[in-house]
């Protein structure tokens, strides 16, 4: 402030440099600093100040001076320490006699004690140069006078101090003044600003209805008389305290500037105040300003030179309806309106014909700890007070502000719906009483809880919160990993790329201790830690939206959440879900005294090592130009950890407290049992997912699970087995090719020839009906995918124009790719064998691409260094490889299962599919060739370096050896001849085993995979015995 908007010297220098004719200071900052108009007037040439001249601003802008002038002019004033002072105002200098002014100034804490006792409690200790809620304290007894006096001095350094009687059950009413340079002044109606907290306005409205028309007229006349008495020009505001019980008003102060809430007056009078200020500064009389003429029932413009208006006798037109204004502040209503600071991610407001507003920042802004907490203002109008109130409530409910700050929007919205406000039965102490009783916060929390209960259970909210926390931790870890790589450092994969996180959240007194495991880039599994429900979990998905929100999925239901505060040691995390704010509480630790706002430690109120009682203030902090006391929450011995003058951030430790009775401290209840969350499942329960009726989705899901595991994400033994089982189920479903082809065909509707589309569709439908026919053994049916391929090739060849043919081929490429795996040879009953084989080969190659950097005994540091050099511009690729390698124990199990499935396929006789039950098959890969897998198996078989690599390599080498054996038909022919030899030997007297049989057995040729097929061929008991002995 001192370096820009309040820097008079800078303002004047810039005005002179750019040759401006006038300066308009608006409100706040330098707008009521008399040095500004004086300095501008002293410039060569003089620069006009759009506002009052220096002398009246100096006299009336000072609260002590204005009160002396008001009581000298006969304006009623409330009792204060200078009630006895009368003095004549010097218009030329704008000053009062020094002795008179000084006699009304309280110079030290001792004088404050005397003055407060004389005025009578309760009293207000005020800084003459204060305003906006700063430099003002209410004191109800003599014990708090000295402390309050020091706080006021600290908030407005160098300002004179005075003490006035506190008027209880009073209204804060103010009259809007406008005076011209010819001695005329008028009242432009007024405003009721009685809804205040800590003496700072929260809600303003107009016109005032608390005072009767007769009393209000007297208040306006007194304000106009005061302005004329000092020769006041331009806009200003006279503030009064009005006692409804006594129907009396008392002068409070005069603000020699435009108020921030001036649009209230503009809406009810139709007078543009900044425009009127400009016209007054131009030397135009009030009765020549068109909007003022209209306000007093005259035409805006006259053909002849207009005659002056006698404002003392001519009546104003009635107010145009009613207007209510609400200040939008960065304060936490649930914590006694404590100021907050931080960035803003979203600010969404749209003005309507009935509601207008403005904000001092947009969605990319932030509010720092040295700024005023107000950053927005809304104004709602209506034909009457009730209509204006309803319009404001609707606007507040539609206003969306999301970021690191807290706002009072929800609180004020609830405030406007209270009966006291609706009935206009309020006073200046009304809101402070509500805050002290915590009544409205409880009601707001209860209402929000009721709204949440109808939609989301607290358990679901905890799961969403834990998923978001885990997602953010994971992304942050990956970011740190890449940053370390780019700096040439060796990042730790075990810590930065951790796949399991423990999250503790407290919601409405219940503590959820959750374990969140990452199963994919956006997929998580949430379970309870240290619980009997160790085998139960719920799967969630979290995706980051472009606006900074999170698209979460819990139990198949999508929920959008916004993180408004991450929380720290002293504040909990806050989420906004469906327009409702969900506040998680921090762990209650009364032994650590921390600040939850940024600011400065101004004064220690108790010495180090002293005993403090519960609720006793122990220090004062300066936050957003205000002094706030901090209180202990339990009794004990206090030990300071910080010094006076220290700058603080939210969560910083100020002091520690040794509790008198630690056992009496209430803690959150630990959650136990089953979470009431959609999708909460027992891992031991069979999977009855709807995907099982859609084989293509089941196949895709199973392969994605395996790929996630290969990429280094968590894949438990149960999930691994489930994925392998799902692959078998999907690959054995005869409808698998139908669904995969139908999926690609659906997007081509209307884009390819209608006849071709219909032919392929009819083929698919016909096969579906055939599978549904109970008379057929559906599991052994085979879809003729080759016919679809023929149709596509024939249609492509039918185009004479090569460009049309190329377009058709490009358009149908995804469809061709879907058909291709089902065209080649398939064993009956396993149509998806080639499709699964493709997936397995991809996973094998992916694993080899990762582990080739680490096997053969290479240490982690050397491997990362080599990866960094090979991927200089792609640190993400290094991260993915390191993440996968970090889960070597898990990925090796996946590879061993895949290798084993490949090996089993080589031992299966495809011919048994036409005769044997499906349950007797071992592998979904039966049929086709495993030759493409041999290069991968060979690379894996050569890996070494530790026991994990050795186990996988051994499994791969066994499969390679198996693949080198004779094929099934050759082995069956040899076994048939051996059966004949054994049968003959059994019937001979010697019963000697033929040498040929011994030679076959010595070769360790496996027979189990052809056993059932040969068993079906034997025609006698002797042959069955011979086969059994051979096997």
Task: Briefly characterize the structure.
The chain is of the alpha+beta class and 1031 residues long.
Structure, explained:
- With 1031 residues, the protein is of the alpha+beta class.
- The chain has 35 helices and 36 strands.
- Strands 19, 20, 21, 22, 23, 24, 25, 26, 35 and 36 form a ten-stranded mixed sheet that branches. The chain has an eight-stranded antiparallel sheet with strand order 10-9-6-7-8-11-17-15, sandwiched between helices. A four-stranded antiparallel sheet has the order 27-34-32-29, with no helix packed on it.
- The longest helix has 29 residues.
- About 2% of the residues have low confidence.
The low-confidence runs, each spanning 5 or more residues with pLDDT under 50, are 448-454, 913-921
Which percent bin holds the helix content? Answer: 25-40%
**In angstroms, what separates the terminal alpha carbons?**
95 Å
Q: DSSP helix count?
A: 35
What layout of secondary structure does this protein have?
Elements: H1 8-17, E1 22-23, H2 35-41, E2 48-49, H3 54-60, H4 63-72, H5 98-103, H6 109-119, E3 123-131, E4 134-139, H7 145-155, E5 161-165, E6 170-179, E7 185-197, E8 200-206, H8 213-229, E9 234-243, E10 248-255, H9 263-269, H10 273-281, H11 290-295, E11 322-329, E12 331-332, E13 338-339, E14 342-348, E15 355-359, E16 366-367, E17 374-382, H12 385-398, E18 400-403, H13 409-416, H14 419-422, H15 430-437, H16 439-453, H17 458-486, H18 493-496, E19 500-507, E20 510-518, E21 523-528, E22 536-544, E23 550-554, E24 557-565, E25 574-577, E26 580-583, E27 592-594, E28 599-604, E29 611-612, E30 617-623, E31 626-631, E32 636-640, E33 647-648, E34 653-659, E35 669-670, E36 681-682, H19 695-710, H20 717-731, H21 736-746, H22 754-772, H23 785-797, H24 802-811, H25 813-819, H26 833-851, H27 860-870, H28 875-886, H29 888-906, H30 934-941, H31 947-963, H32 968-987, H33 995-1002, H34 1008-1017, H35 1021-1030
Parallel strand pairs: 1-2, 20-35
Antiparallel strand pairs: 3-4, 3-5, 6-7, 6-9, 7-8, 8-11, 9-10, 11-17, 12-13, 14-16, 14-18, 15-17, 19-20, 20-21, 21-22, 22-23, 22-36, 23-24, 24-25, 25-26, 27-34, 28-30, 28-33, 29-32, 30-31, 32-34
Helix pairs in contact: 1-2, 6-7, 12-13, 13-16, 17-28, 19-20, 19-26, 21-22, 21-25, 26-28, 26-29, 26-30, 29-31, 30-31, 32-35
